[in-house]
Amino acid sequence: MKALIVDDDFYSRNMIHEILRSVAHCDIAVNGEEAIEAFRQGLVDKSPYDLVCLDLLMPELDGQQALREIRNMEQEFGISPHKEAKIIVTTMLDDEKETHDAFFLGGATSYLVKPIDEEKLMSEVKSLGLV
Fold first, then answer.
1. Coil, strand or helix: which one is 131?
2. Can you tell me the distance from the alpha carbon of 110 to that of 102, in angstroms, rounded to the nearest whole number?
3. Which pLDDT tens digit goes with each residue over 100-116?
4. Is beta strand 2-6 parallel, antiparallel or unpaired with respect to 25-29?
5. What is the 3-state secondary structure (H, E, C) of the chain?
């Protein structure tokens, strides 16, 4: 499995990386701009990401915008909905509007509220059929 971890918080990035590194090749982006560029490069190289763990609140370009851009890119590259990357939104916000926007406007697959722990994340990854 190939995973992209997107978070501006060093602790959160490292925690998610430590959890996933035994089951995935992990790349890291610190903001939405870097996430979009890494995701695009994966598509261009025909080595797309299977999983994206995406924070919502980030500088440069926030997670909601990055999420929409990623889904648009997948459409541009002709990726069918059942082959899309699984995107787990990871955020401090336990907010109904943010959840609604991530799922219904952005196309998120799942939503986890921080702090992320190993049991919670691995359970979600397994439920998505990635391990």
1. coil
2. 9
3. 566 655 688 888 888 89
4. parallel
5. CEEEEECCCHHHHHHHHHHHCCCCEEEEECCHHHHHHHHHHHHHCCCCCCEEEEECCCCCCCHHHHHHHHHHHHHHCCCCHHHCCEEEEEECCCCHHHHHHHHHHCCCCEEEECCCCHHHHHHHHHHCCCC
Number of domain units in the chain: 1
Tens of pLDDT, residues 36-78: 999 999 999 999 999 999 998 888 888 889 999 999 999 999 9
Q: Is the dihedral of CA 69, 106, 126, 114 positive or negative?
A: positive
Structural domain range at position 66: 2-126
CATH number of the domain that 113 lies in? Answer: 3.40.50.2300
**Tokens at 51, concatenated:** 């999983």
Task: Enter the tokens of residue 129.
Answer: 């059929």
